[in-house]
Design a protein that fits this description.
globular; Aspartate Aminotransferase, domain 2; four-stranded antiparallel β-sheet; homotetramer; Aspartate Aminotransferase, domain 1; 13 strands; 2 domains
Amino acid sequence: MYSFKNDYSEGAHPRILQALIETNLEQVEGYGTDSYTLKAIELLKQKIGRKDVDIHFFSGGTQTNLTALSAFLRPHEAIIAPSTGHILVHETGAIEATGHKIISVEVTDGKLTPDHIKTVIDGHTDEHMVKPKLIYISNPSEIGSIYKKAELEQLSQCCRENHLFLFVDGARLGSALSSKENDITLTDLAALVDSFYIGGTKNGALIGEALVICNEILKDDFRFHMKQKGALLAKGKVLGIQFLELFKDDLYFDLAAHANEMANLLRNAITTAGYQFLTDSPSNQIFPILPNSLITKLEKNYSFYIWSKIDHNHSSIRLVTSWATTEDAVMAFIKDLNSAL
Amino acid sequence: MYSFKNDYSEGAHPRILQALIETNLEQVEGYGTDSYTLKAIELLKQKIGRKDVDIHFFSGGTQTNLTALSAFLRPHEAIIAPSTGHILVHETGAIEATGHKIISVEVTDGKLTPDHIKTVIDGHTDEHMVKPKLIYISNPSEIGSIYKKAELEQLSQCCRENHLFLFVDGARLGSALSSKENDITLTDLAALVDSFYIGGTKNGALIGEALVICNEILKDDFRFHMKQKGALLAKGKVLGIQFLELFKDDLYFDLAAHANEMANLLRNAITTAGYQFLTDSPSNQIFPILPNSLITKLEKNYSFYIWSKIDHNHSSIRLVTSWATTEDAVMAFIKDLNSAL
Amino acid sequence: MYSFKNDYSEGAHPRILQALIETNLEQVEGYGTDSYTLKAIELLKQKIGRKDVDIHFFSGGTQTNLTALSAFLRPHEAIIAPSTGHILVHETGAIEATGHKIISVEVTDGKLTPDHIKTVIDGHTDEHMVKPKLIYISNPSEIGSIYKKAELEQLSQCCRENHLFLFVDGARLGSALSSKENDITLTDLAALVDSFYIGGTKNGALIGEALVICNEILKDDFRFHMKQKGALLAKGKVLGIQFLELFKDDLYFDLAAHANEMANLLRNAITTAGYQFLTDSPSNQIFPILPNSLITKLEKNYSFYIWSKIDHNHSSIRLVTSWATTEDAVMAFIKDLNSAL
Amino acid sequence: MYSFKNDYSEGAHPRILQALIETNLEQVEGYGTDSYTLKAIELLKQKIGRKDVDIHFFSGGTQTNLTALSAFLRPHEAIIAPSTGHILVHETGAIEATGHKIISVEVTDGKLTPDHIKTVIDGHTDEHMVKPKLIYISNPSEIGSIYKKAELEQLSQCCRENHLFLFVDGARLGSALSSKENDITLTDLAALVDSFYIGGTKNGALIGEALVICNEILKDDFRFHMKQKGALLAKGKVLGIQFLELFKDDLYFDLAAHANEMANLLRNAITTAGYQFLTDSPSNQIFPILPNSLITKLEKNYSFYIWSKIDHNHSSIRLVTSWATTEDAVMAFIKDLNSAL
């Protein structure tokens, strides 16, 4: 049984564990003030091409989102998110638990546009309603789509005109930025948004996300917020060491590119076999629409999520690839798919 | 420069990293539903001698405290804690951020007694004040003292008589239970308190704390609370594997006993050298009172915290030992101490 | 200029002020423990026909909603509400500010059905999502519709089967229960729901809402929650005296019936004049669809809200009547409407 | 039985009710945007001598405190308050429920000094602790003492030097400013503090407190916070009309002066009778220390709180006077006191 259920089934890329071993017995400062973490921050700043951003490491995505968003907002300020947004659906109300409403915008492709935002802004006119203040998007979205640079620029401009912060959930940012359709760089991202995070857990790290704060007014006292939310690890170096390893020679992007290639192999084979997809996804998650009978056959050797019912005889499934997905497994899946026809 | 500043300076015990490597590429379920985590839970239940407790793994102590205490309490219910309590002083208001007041009880030895509790209860008489509902203690306390079984029994009885939950912060529980003065077992603990946690981060783990919920009425829906607070790691197996390794042959207690022995060597030598201690600490943190001139000399080769000013010429310092503290370093410190006299 | 903008434009019914004057200089206990408040509670219990409900007085609707709902729920539990629900739209995220997510269900008539609820329940399957626990409805709804007894019975049964609390926002409950289409009594309400409130502010009181808690398990320590949210008035008798006056001879229902009659006069005349309505509203809010040119003429002598754009030439407006609306004003409006044709 | 238990036993000063009656049937705008409220705001600005302050009306003190303090602070920021502070003791954790820690400073006279503040600031050095940001004081304090102008100036300077906000709980501000020992004006107050409130409930109003925000950076979006906390009354005019009446000819200060005079009569008589006081209180609350036998006798005809046990035979009691306290009642108490000797 091979799993295409998610991109966090395995542990870390071997180089990550090796780095942890090599530095294991050194005595260092706690809570992310150690030299490895400081070096990782410097390295990420170089990769982003900006010395004036702040960078903080977290152990998971929900923790990153809830800490950052609650730190960035005053109590009456709300978030606008696409209806597929992870914080809206799959974080057990973590944001609302910090006191903030999320305004959901119905989308079909996982992405927000300036028109969506303007409609919400127009509908929030006085103090009897929350004040929209932060735009939450994910890149890639939770259904695999990615933002093009022109789209992000339009969003960015809309946000600035309306005094809104723009935040990017980058749980799978590596996959987006390594996609063949991508035209956005880390430097673009830092220029266009107020804050984003670079997901490590789903791209080779054992655990770890790197939050980048670009907007000066969001930086103050951020470590207080981290400590208050339980996000400052005593052995903070565990996170720093991993990001140092992931970015010192672009391992991070290589791993993401591999995941995308594996997804691409699957996509091409499924297309060739004559099937459609629920969404147009150029990243490491794809959503083919298959006959239920075929799904049942595939489930014998592969695990994956059944995403949605399409009609009486068809469903969409979600296939996720990762840095650890082997080409052998992908080829076996394709072979089984074709032989089942 | 050798550090006695804390017990989280180094990484993990080598066996922990080895266990992570061995299981690294297996595909497992996410969010702590993998077989390693389930085995770790079973193993801990065996060690505790109770099948009916619930066990959940966290990545840090503040996260454990804030998730558990906010899950256990209704909005108007408050916590009683000794004035030295970690949640009162060093967690950036994490508990209050979840909406709950902590009532501080002035103590000198880091420990609460039934009399303390009764005084608070007597002073909280109606709905204009919060309702005390949970007693927070740490074992060992933040200043190194430990609870004897008789003391814990009295606290437990007081709590049951007053419908209070009793919670033990066990960030350094290994050190307490491995202390030569200790007469409490894990089984005792589970019988006497409503919930406690077994700290891994400060005793050999890379990261990790194991929360044990003994009281049936505190168990419901606990994973919802974890997810909401950002505490459910996607790669939850990282925590399970560590606890499995720490407890499969009592490595956990061996490491704590080593830390205590190192502290004991220091304590004896300092006593022999004619110095007093701020507190009576039979665990891995000791607080000798030394002349400032001696402290200055020791600071050349050793790092540690200066804890408090005693008089014009003396201060207390905090020396912390751990599983990783070497006897060589301890002997060197003692030698330097004696030669500085 | 006569206002049909809302039902809180005027002060209190004269009998309310008279009651306040008559009792003004008596010395009584504070915080709602005075004899007037206790008598008002007894009287309401009689009207409801239940001795075992708890009753608490508040100064406003948002305060009632946020105090009750946050007291009734644990942190991970969420509310299901129709998309028109007041707590979703017009309370500035008051519920989310207490930490709870509200799940919005798209509705056209302002009302929830068991099917809506089941769909939400089916979609919330594990700890990565909030746990739906409380159903919020308003009677009448924010767009004037009311629940029939059979509908409420179905909702009630659905809630019990799914372990959900059912809560009714009764900001305009008088209007619903006095509607000619209504077949629900206060006794029915207390039997079918877990908690509801009887709105005073919009039906003759100066300020005041009476929360009724029917479900035993929601009653504990409720006054603690009120105090914590700033809802316990020092001069609590101000609220008790008003409800005593409103209910001692059914003044409350008489006032609501008057408001409904005034709305009915308007509705009939507008229908006769050939216009349609946005919603079928048998309560004190009606939403006629009028030509924009007619609206402009009416705005010269009457104030009201333009509710929504219907097409290029038509809009719906909201006309609200109250205990204080005079038949003269209604007749003048009708005359102006007809003469404008 | 005459009550000296508190200053909210009676309703409102008759002129207040008269003003409510006179304006009762006028149709006005809701939520505090009516002409009466606007006039009350202008009048208060005149009395304060500042056009640039913002003023908002609330229905109670706890509601005012929790709304203002949570609006003024970011999540990691904490409040410093004297141990007697109302928010620390008698508001059921209302402030903590909004997420903020209150740091208690042990005081004997109910008042904070710059030394207290500096000690707390010195002890809060990094992100592992909350960040003190707002100083909460009450004038008069909860035990009757008042601040002199020089003391307030020192506090103000200390706050500005340390980037702290200074907030004054003025639940009984009338009594403080009308005390014979007072040398502070409303204008002084607005110049020296960042925000304060003028309590109406305990000085002649039916309900009502007026929050004054002096510091520009605390003003933004304040009505959003009010709505979110349930503090915006639909019939907001009820509050505005009362403050308009209280301040249009200094009724507010006349009422407070009367209360103080009544307390003064009691104080002088008790002093003459040879008794001491727990605190030096020049406001409308006094705390005489009396023999328990005398207290028992007085309790036959008067109700009051027994404040604290002094020794085996003596206790302190609290006597509170108000605008409604009659000289007859005071004289009767004094007579009974003397005849009981």
